[in-house]
Amino acid sequence: MYRLLVLIFLSFILTTEVSGQNKVITGTVTDQDNEPIPGVNVIIRGTAQGTVTDVNGNYKLAMPPGYPILVFSFVGFMNEEVRVTTENTVDVSLYPDIQSLTELVITGYTTEKLDRLSGSVGTVESKQMEDIPIPSFDQVLQGKTAGLYISSGSGQPGSSATVRLRGSGSIGAGNTPLYILDNVPISAGEFSTLNVNDFESISVLKDASATAIYGSRGSNGVIVITSKSGKKNSASLTYRMQYGFSQQARERFEMMNTQEKIAFEQYIGEGFAGELDPNNAVDRKILEQYKRTNTNWKDIFIRKGKLQSHELAFSGGGEKTTFYTSLAYLNQEGQAIKSDLERYTLRLNLSSNAIENLKIDFNSSFGYSNSNVIPSEGQTSIINPFAVVYWANPYITPYDENGDYNTGVGLTGPNTLEIINEGQRTNDQIKSVVSTSAQYNLAEPLYIKTTFGIDFTQTNFERFNSPDSYLYENSGGSFSQSQFQDFSYIWTNLLGYSKNFKDHFIEITLGHEIFANSINSFGYTGYGINPKLPGTPEGVSPGADGINIPEIEGFKEGNSLHSLFAIANYSIKDKYNLKASIRRDGSSRFGVNNRFAIFWSVGASWNIKEEAFLINSQLLSGLKIRASYGTVGNQSGIDNFQSLGTYSPVSYGSNQGNGILYAGNPDLKWEVSNQANLGIDFSFLNDKIFGNIDLYNIITSDLFVQYQLSRTTGFESIRSNEGKMSNKGIELTLNADILTIGDFIWTVGGNIAYNKNEILDLGQVTEFERGTSIVKEGLPLGTHYITEWAGVNPSNGEPLYVGQNGEITNNYDAAGPKAIFGTSQAPLTGGFFSTLSFKGLKLDGFFTFTSGYSRFNNQLFFSENPNFITSNLSKKMTTMWKEPGDITEIQSYQYERQFSSKDIEDASFLRLRNVRLSYSFSEKLIEQTKGIFKGLEIYVQGQNLFTWTEFTGFDPEDDNNIAQFEYPASKVYSVGLSVKF
Amino acid sequence: MRKYYKYIIAILLLSSGCESILDVEPTDIIIEDQAFKSLRDVEAGAIAAYGFVSEENIIEFSSLASDDVLRPSTNSGHGVQINSWAYVASNNEAADLWYNAYRSIAQANRVLYSIDQLINNGEIKNDEISSANHLKSEMLALRAHQHLNLYRAMGEKYGNDALAVPYMDLEDNNNNNRPDGLETDLKPARLKCPEFFEELFDDIDQALQNITIETVNSQNIYRFNYYAIKALEARAALYSEKYDRAINASNDVINNVDLCSFNDYENLWLDSESSGVLFKLNRTVNDDFIGRIWTFNLTDISFAPSNELVDLLSPYDIRYYTTFYKPENGERIVYKYPGKVGGYWFLNDVKVYRVSEMYLIRAEASLKKINIDIDQANEDLMSLRNERIYLYNHNTINDKDQLINEILLERRKEFAYEGHRFFDLKRNQLPLERSPLDCGGSIPCELEAGNFRFNLPIPQEEVFANKNIQQNPGYGQN
């Protein structure tokens, strides 16, 4: 109170000092809830003059001529600049600044003041996500917050990424974080039909203090998304548009051209050209024709994909009700022919406290997307265009002299081209996330809040293979449709209490929640398609005599959760803060013996800067220590009914009976993750440099594994809780305003995270193999397990391997695999940015990097293997061993090409993820339009323009351990504008 | 604070009312306690028990390991370990045989248990009891049959101290008030042969008690019927060297069921005729095609008939036409399973018990029992050959050993690719000698009598999960 009096006094003096000479402006400054804010700085830009608002948020100020702009600033709120023209009253609303240091952090069920936060929470705000031409928002988060590792598995527009927070905590279950959009858990991996421009902020909850309140689903981290809302007493219309194109990045290997391939085939005497005899007149003629052809299959299958998007967003509000609504359209073509995404999204958010003590919120989004996809994406298949581009022989033409597809046995290029062009492969999706909540203030400070929300996704897959196409003429073509419906609802009830007692602050929230999910799927495949009726179920033949009989498939299942929870916060002067949470979860997935579990956390933080010995420090402008410990669970990624003994249909002859399926484990329960976190938040030199460091130690126990049973029981294994894994790591985030010279500002920042994963215990076994990797105690997850390559014997061209004891051998089987080639799960990840701005001009660069991991490049097995001589081969094959004395890495074609450590490649990379040059038009220009425009920005940007890596597959970044002709990430160039009315 | 209690109580009340949301029942699978509620459910359980039977596993092993096949260059890896006698504990075929057999036993045990439960609690009505008892006989017989197959493959040649395999039934040997056969955490040890066969014959005796005697017909040929159980008894008795029992059981079958005649024999293998078949497994397009064990298609041959076997059969023998076939311009293929009339190539029902086996069991047992009966053996051999060889003229053989050899030879011809040859040699402690025309290079020629490889290894997964199981000698403990 004393301070306020001083402020009022001071403002009075300042006001009187300048009054009388100039134009006098008055007004009120309020927050988004229309509450007055006292103590706001009001400065006349370009002068030293200013004032502060009084206890009612009012101010009064005299403005000298030639200085028309008022700047309003207050800690924890975004600055607001207002150009004063003829008016004498300027009322301003300030909005909380999500990025600033004393912000409110959305931590799921509640929000916390950053000052009091004891957990580890990363926040990404809308301006870091807007206008990036990537339809699936999870990919947009890449590199934005420390410890959140995102790797896109595919460049198909709309595909989602693999997301890992602080490493993988589970072997047998899911490692995907929980996603919450406006209080509704949404299904992971289905984001292509959500519009990222609608998101206001994303909180990444990392440690137990933040996630324990999500109980049995929190152990992989929680990503809380809040969509945009309108501002009170305002109205604005924003139009954004963007045009661009995407293209393939250059690969780091080269295939043979016609001349090289024919020479190679002739040398071995196999292949289309190799089996031709140059001395035979007929053969010679064909050979001549081959030699004249040099098809670049990339021109056939790969293209420059076009991109466009348009969006209208209308937001605003009156005294008691605010709204945000948007309509967006996006059309993005992929780099491969016939791969694209077209999307329409709508959003309406409403918030109203029209009735006293009652606040109603309504958030809804509805979207429809339709995409064409390539056949056999990410598979080593002869109809995957990304494999065929490299496998198709350059001496084969796509079309014959009549202009028809040049199809035939082994003619991979034309065969696939026909499949793609004449067939149809589409996925369309409808997604809607709707929630509504009502908060009623029972009696200050007690309130109740109830929220009901649904997440609905329906995906339809349609595949058509033409009966006229070479590869499908025998089966008469096929047509299939399948539908996948995923519906969940959540009902949350909160009872909250929060109050300040002098220096003490207490907040208690009790909650009850039920969640249910049901999945429903069906589909069919028909054969013997009537060529006159392509692409419709009408064209399917009913089949006869067991041939071309249509197939039907489908399933239904569900699961549910029931929870009770409590969160308590206690704070003394925002200096000493304590937080505790507890949640009791029941899950339908678990056995009667372990259906319920309790998860809890405690956290504390200490604002050292507020202590007497630091409060006057000029250098240090903020210092806080945070610590937390707690337990969180994981129940994702396992089947719904593994706790139960079950039967399923088994047929004998034409009869169907019911036979044993799973043994069931009534003791099945959650994976439990014990998480400790220690963090320091710091800022120096008036917040010119700020950042934080977090150290964590996570031990997941009761890991889901398959426990092997004696087969004499009639069962092979049961799902069981054994095993332990640890993830330890350190995360650093740092931001700095490096340079400020007048209007020129250079800001840099970034984050880096190191995670060490180790499997501690596997229960019944100490190791087991998974393809070309091994899961073994003492090693990190994703460890490659493969035979060590020792080179090619120069005397006979035989491949050599290093055996278990270091001996060199030509016996592949005897040498055996080793686990010394690193892991496919990246330990070191991060991202950094640089922003240069000068007046309205701004240049942003954003890099992501990943280091210390390797991937199995399965593509080499095909491109460097003479067994595949009927396909095109790598240029490297020209260095194949031919005669004694040849020193080469490519063995003679007389020996079997095996998987070996030479296929494991370092996949570390640094990628220029986004670069953007934008210009915001100055007020002067906007002024000339007489207030029609409130803002105008134009920009050019590029995605994935450069990648530095040693990896020779298409793309070092991928969601798994193996490179198998995945759809690579595209380079995207775009221009766009954003206008605000 | 007191005024807030009511709100907290309201939340707790709300919460307890909603807990039933956790009782989510599966829609696509059946929960254990819902599986058996009526006689109809028991029948459905029995169908699944038959559905789990994979007689193909033992037929494949017996054939590929024997001297009835040769491995051509078109073999792309399938069955090579078995054919070369190089199998180890991690062998896939051994694992499949073991697990598939015990899975159908586990299913049969659950059906048997449910029948008793449902009768006790009255869910099966009095007028349904005879049907229930019939199902009980079938499941007991199926359980015995599957155990016998496991014994033939993994068990040691009969002897008082020789090891058989664990016998899974509903006894409660570990006294924990749960039938052993329903426990999923059981780790049973192998039984010695006498104990094993005691359990097995208990099942057969009980099965015979409950079943009505009826002729084999198109209805019951796909299930265990009275004569099929008798045939099982005869086969089990032969393996356990109970020759009188083998003779008695085969008598019962021979006296009541006709041998497949010369004229019907070819149609038997096209499934358009089933005379002389006591039990066969019904196979449709959704099952494995048994003929693909040897031949995937006419140009993709994994195993061909051995030259030795081809030479054994004369063109006057009807089996010359039902055992192999050489297409014009093609390679000779195994032709026991050519496909059903008008159906898919190589898809046939799997014949498990046939009357001809009863003749050869009786003949062999007559020579091995205490009071040797040379006449009976000659008579049985002649009866069978009369129906197989055109204008057959039997010369009586008076030498016992020579006669046993003739019987084994006849078994080889009659049951080629039906799962017997390898075990006939094992049972009689004979060596396996391939003709030089059929072996050499990577295909070994001789497996000397009593070699450890006459017993398949206990699968690695079993040894890993079951600390009580004993591995067969020669395979190591891992």
Q: In words, what does this structure look like?
A:
Chain B: Residues 75-236 form the SusD-like N-terminal domain. Chain B: Residues 360-387 form a coiled coil. Chain B: Keywords: Cell outer membrane, Coiled coil, Membrane, Signal. The complex is a heterodimer of chains A (981) and B (478). The longest helix of chain A has 17 residues, at 2-18. In chain A, helix 7 (385-391) runs antiparallel to helix 8 (412-422). Helices cover 9% and strands 48% of the residues of chain A. By secondary structure, chain A is mainly beta. Chain A has a 22-stranded antiparallel barrel. In chain A, a hairpin with a 5-residue loop joins strand 42 (799-802) and strand 43. Chain A contains twelve helices and 53 strands. Among the domains of chain A are: 2-93, Immunoglobulin-like, CATH 2.60.40; 104-229, Ferric Hydroxamate Uptake Protein, Chain A, domain 1, CATH 2.170.130. With 478 residues, chain B is mainly α. Helices cover 46% and strands 6% of the residues of chain B. The model of chain B has no long low-confidence stretch (mean pLDDT 92). In chain B, the strands form five sheets. Chain B has a two-stranded antiparallel ribbon with strand order 2-6. The longest helix of chain B is centred in the first third of the chain and has 29 residues, at 92-120. Chain B has two domains: 37-71 and 80-212 and 443-478, Serine Threonine Protein Phosphatase 5, Tetratricopeptide repeat (Alpha Horseshoe); 242-416, Serine Threonine Protein Phosphatase 5, Tetratricopeptide repeat (Alpha Horseshoe). Chain B has helices at residues 5-18, 32-35, 39-52, 55-64, 80-83, 92-120, 129-154, 193-210, 226-239, 243-256, 262-268, 307-312, 319-323, 355-368, 374-386, 400-414, 421-427, 460-465; strands at 30-31, 69-70, 277-281, 295-297, 300-301, 304-305, 324-325, 333-334, 350-354, 432-433, 446-447. In chain B, strand 7 and strand 8 (333-334) form a beta hairpin.
